[in-house]
Amino acid sequence: MDLGLKNKRIVITGSSRGLGEEIAKQFIEEGALLTLVARNEEKLKTLVNKFGGQSNGHNYISSDLKKDGEPQKIANEIINNNKKIDVVVHNLGGSQGSAEIFAHQDNWYENWKFNVGIAIELNNYFCPHMIKNKWGRIIHISSSNSFSGGTTSTGEAPAPAYTCAKSYLNMYSKVLGREMAKHDVIVSCLIPGVLKSDGKHWDRLAKSNPKLVENYLKNHHAIGRFGKYEEIAPFVKILASKHATFASSASLNIDGGYI
Question: What domains does the chain contain, in order, with CATH numbers?
């Protein structure tokens, strides 16, 4: 299937490893031009060089988007450097190590900013650019926790602030999508189930307490296992493609039958 992504400029945040890296790889298969954004410059450089580097039209920006004013700065830099932005994938996110339901409000705000606020600030600059070009795709990566509520604070993966932030992201994506649809800018939300990333919570827990992880998968995933990056990334491409014209404000669950 021709997705119409050849030579489209794709911006991906949180793209130096894990799901972001896999999304980047799969866009390369479609002949897209990548702008990767993450904190780790060495990993970004290695990845972009693997794709053929700047001579093949790819580039990267190393940035900590949590810093005040940084999203505005980076958005302007990306637009000025690339002239035209076609697709933005907001893959940046995470629980920030927050597991306490009675955490201070600053902790809740930190999670909101990391999982939602940065995307909003970037979109405030990318959306007018796409409106001017009369075409665009914006995809937010959410979480199945945003629908289920996740586990309790004494459960296997407590992340109340993260869970609530992702729920906010879902509704923001829907509201923004309604406003942008008339400009042929399609905004959507992809909602993956739990993925096990090297060195992250579930990877560490699988080594330290395999029985707990086994119990979690048995009780929360009909498929009985964690998702794989390569099972999620193809759906990002579909939502970014020329075929996504009726997907305004769509929320797409890819969660292994999350219970």
Answer: 9-192+228-253 (3.40.50.720), 198-226 (no CATH)
